[in-house]
Design a protein that fits this description.
Order of helices and strands: EHEHEHEHHEHEEHEEEHEEHEHH
Distance between the termini: 39 Å
Radius of gyration: 19 Å
Shape: globular
Number of strands: 13
Strand order of the largest sheet: 3-2-1-4-5-6-11
Low-confidence stretches: none
Strand content: 15-25%
Helix content: 25-40%
Largest sheet: 7 strands, parallel
Length: 342
């Protein structure tokens, strides 16, 4: 994509896994990128700082240390910068941690998101893209998950906050004409990935000859989506500003669109993989076998995720397609280089 003129974009959570990769892509393609991140210690801050160091000097990139739940600071930022686009990726992540520390999710994912919405509303932002999650599908077992499905039965507080983001965004679209696109990400993985996620945890444990925790006795399937595919989807959608759907019918409401300028998409690989198969690919890549600690299903987890990406492909011409073995190999190469492992 070539820009007619330079556009300024705010990426919240730019020191995070997805935010880092997206900032690098945007800055290298001519956007004026500002990112905010509070650098919290949910996982090792050092990896966040190392991501930011790599972004220094990449195109037009600036970092501001800030918590999106800080209302006065966010108001000043929006008023001064006058962003064209906003991509909200800042959030307290993790399904399981939401059971332990619920307040962190309300502060970041609800209070912080309202601050983002208010900033967009009062400063003529052309388009807000925000990260939702496959977790919103909750107790739904209608596979594959479609953006047209009902998502009123979340199974974790994290999922509930992401569903709340979708409702809040739609309300701002309806009341104020804000243009919003929500993206439901499916199990994102790849280089610079989060240390709390399965791929990172499994590889670390196997290389250290420790057992890995395998929940639901391995009877789980996930739609693992490579980071480059996620970024490509976001990149294509930034300047695809949603419009009201003239065919939307209140008698038969389609959750994926609206009478307001609002749109939802899944971004997933569209090829769910069994957890035990996922582990086998890791073992083959490392050339080592794992020792498995088989455990019951954890609270808040679901047995399967599977993205219906028809809307994404139809509207952008893009279909995520990175094979899992390729993505895992790329992650292992990064992991060994980053931690100086022969």
């Amino acid at each position: 994509m070539k820009l007619q003129d330079k556009k300024k974009v705010l990426v919240t959570g730019g020191a995070g896994f997805i935010g880092f990769h997206l900032c690098k892509r945007l800055a290298s393609h001519g956007f004026d990128v500002v990112t905010v991140d509070n650098l919290n210690d949910y996982y090792d801050v050092a990896i966040k700082q190392d991501r930011l160091r790599l972004l220094e000097g990449v195109g037009n990139f600036r970092f501001v240390r800030m918590d999106i739940s800080d209302r006065p600071a966010m108001e000043r930022l929006f008023a001064v910068e006058k962003f064209d686009y906003v991509v909200n990726l800042a959030a307290q992540a993790g399904v399981r941690y939401s059971i332990i520390n619920p307040h962190a999710y309300i502060e970041s994912n609800i209070v912080g998101f309202v601050n983002v919405l208010e900033g967009c509303r009062h400063n003529n932002v052309k388009h807000l893209i925000f990260a939702s999650s496959s977790s919103v599908y909750g107790a739904n077992t209608n596979i594959p998950f479609s953006v047209r499905h009902n998502v009123d039965h979340p199974m974790s507080l994290y999922a509930a906050t992401k569903k709340s983001n979708e409702l809040l965004a739609h309300t701002y679209c309806s009341l104020y004409g804000l243009h919003c696109t929500g993206l439901r990400f499916f199990t994102v993985y790849g280089p610079w990935g989060r240390p709390d996620m399965a791929l990172f945890l499994f590889i670390k444990a196997i290389l250290e000859d420790r057992p890995i925790d395998v929940f639901n006795h391995g009877d789980m399937r996930r739609d693992f989506t490579y980071i480059d595919d996620i970024v490509e989807g976001v990149f294509r959608l930034i300047q695809r500003i949603p419009q009201a759907n003239p065919a939307w019918d209140g008698k038969h409401p389609d959750p994926s669109s609206s009478y307001a300028p609002y749109k939802l998409y899944n971004i997933g690989n569209n090829k769910p993989v069994g957890l035990l198969n996922f582990i086998e690919i890791i073992e083959d890549t490392l050339g080592r076998k794992s020792r498995k600690n088989l455990l019951p299903m954890q609270q808040g987890d679901v047995a399967e995720t599977y993205a219906d990406i028809e809307e994404l492909t139809k509207d952008t011409g893009f279909t995520p397609s990175t094979p899992l073995d390729v993505g895992i190999r790329n992650f292992v190469s990064w992991y060994k280089e980053y931690f100086n492992i022969p």
